[in-house]
Specification:
The protein is an alpha+beta fold and 317 residues long. The protein has two domains: 15-42 and 133-294, Multidrug efflux transporter AcrB transmembrane domain (Multidrug efflux transporter AcrB transmembrane fold); 51-130, Alpha-Beta Plaits. Helix content is 63%, strand content 8%. It contains eleven helices and seven strands. The chain starts with 18 loop residues before the first helix and ends in a 9-residue tail after the last helix.
């Protein structure tokens, strides 16, 4: 029985031909993502900003503006109301009131009573509450975790390969994280601790794909010392293309099924990892590999002096 091959053995795609166009697109997209984050900001969840969250499932679709008006009439602060999975489930986020814990419980009780009076058959989940101090600590710890993960990865690749590879990996990871941040700033989907976990998962996947490609590039740098760097990178990318496609497709198919059939509570997590897998696959080809060209890597960049000296040759006296 003949095995199915998604990528034929004789595949020879000229990836590097489009490296400058890919660079321009990536730079523009990264800048646009950072601008979006700066202008629109992120829709931080209760984990990071503190407050109360009440989730309600209605018996029939409701008008979100009408719901916002009724909640606002309680004078419990500016409410942020969003659909949660469908047009019958809404998440109501309220600022944390000043005062003791009983004040927060009172706000949740008032919102629950209002919903039950105004919308018969509504199901209101228990309210969640996070203090401002805890939310600040969570935001700091989440940002620190992502930053340390990226720095540690860059140092690891630096010591395993050369500093140019470490810089390439760090730029690649920065690109991937920026793209996902821009997506959440654009869509205003809620960013909570699940999304931080998704960022770390994306960083890990992108690193794995980059290291596989870098390892093949290093092998070919030793094997083909007279080959120009651009053809050598194309050769390395084509040799690892089958592994890249199979791995990426396997992950994305599983995530796509989970995205459409999984529970709503992990929708953001699944979508972030799915998007990150696609972006990470692209960046490992069009960011990490071309970075070596832009950093001046040549086939003889890492040849040791003792390897360049012919065997048996002696220094002149």
């Amino acid at each position: 029985m003949k095995l199915l091959k998604l990528v034929p053995d004789n595949t020879n795609i000229d990836f590097m031909r489009w490296r400058n166009i890919a660079l321009a697109i990536s730079i523009a997209a990264t800048i646009a993502s950072l601008v979006l984050v700066g202008i629109r900001g992120l829709n931080l969840g209760i984990d990071f900003v503190g407050g109360q969250v009440v989730r309600a499932t209605f018996a029939q679709p409701v008008d979100i503006e009408e719901l916002r008006g009724r909640v606002g009439a309680l004078n419990v602060g500016e409410a942020s109301i969003q659909e949660f999975g469908d047009d019958r489930t809404y998440q109501i986020r309220l600022p944390r009131p000043d005062g003791p814990e009983s004040a927060s419980n009172r706000v949740v009780t008032e919102v629950r009573s209002l919903l039950q009076r105004s919308y018969p058959g509504v199901q209101v989940d228990a309210g969640e509450s996070v203090s401002g101090k805890v939310s600040e600590e969570l935001a700091w710890d989440g940002a620190l975790a992502i930053s340390l993960a990226m720095l540690g990865i860059a140092l690891y690749i630096w010591f395993r390969f050369e500093w140019q590879f470490g810089v390439g990996a760090l730029v690649t990871l920065f690109h991937d994280v920026s793209m996902i941040l821009g997506f959440f700033a654009l869509t205003q989907m809620q960013v909570d601790l699940n999304i931080v976990a998704a960022f770390l998962a994306v960083v890990g996947y992108s690193l794995n794909d980059t290291v596989v490609i870098y390892d093949r590039i290093r092998e070919n740098l030793r094997k083909y010392r007279k080959m120009a760097i651009v053809p050598l990178l194309n050769l390395s990318l084509n040799e690892t293309l089958s592994r890249t496609i199979v791995t990426s497709l396997s992950i994305m198919i599983a995530l796509a099924v989970l995205l459409f059939l999984g529970p709503d509570v992990i929708f953001g997590l699944t979508l972030a990892i799915l998007l990150g897998t696609f972006i990470g696959t692209y960046s490992s080809i069009y960011i990490s590999a071309p970075m070596l060209v832009w950093l001046g890597i040549t086939p003889d960049s890492f040849i040791r002096l003792d390897e360049e000296t012919p065997a048996g040759a002696k220094a002149a006296v």
